[in-house]
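Suppose a colleague, Dr. K., hands you the sequence of a protein chain of 183 amino acids and asks what its three-dimensional shape might be. Before reaching for any lab equipment, you can write down a predicted structure in token form. Begin with the sequence itself:
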Amino acid sequence: MAHITVSVEYGIHSLLWLVGQEGKPLSSRKLAELSGVSPTFLAKIFPKLEKAGIVCAAEGVRGGYELAKAPQDISFLEIVDAIEGEKPLFDCQEIRARCPLFGKGPPAWATSGTCAVHAVMLRAEKSMREALKSQSLGDVAQAFGRKAPSEFWAAFQTWLAHEDDPRSGKPASTQRSKGRRAR
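The predicted structure, expressed as tokens, is then:
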């Protein structure tokens, strides 16, 4: 089982869509659609991100989520901890003390200090957390922005502009044209 679950992947990809959208909140439903993930599943992730101060919710008909701070100020570690909680990479069970050769109990030399296996895992966890802390949402958004052609960003903006009318469930452009015909 993965230490960092799919929730983190879904959350990070969805957060990337919010970069550059200041003042234009996106609903978790729209973010799920953009990322090709379950809206119900994503709707469970965003309250965690909001509680951690990564996003803020905008109320109302055109409400949704916006980044609560600059993308450069949001580390991957902050996102992982917000979604997964600050859980250890390894949960040492101290099995070194269970050796049958120890009889009624392990000698002090066998259990003094940190378990050698646990020490390796602690170093790995420290390295992983440092690597995640060193990468920001802004870093990844910038890398993605360099890869995607300008036509993609134009299509994205067009898609956002023709977002569904939340009152009818129909595209806003369709809603407007039907209103004109009825007059």
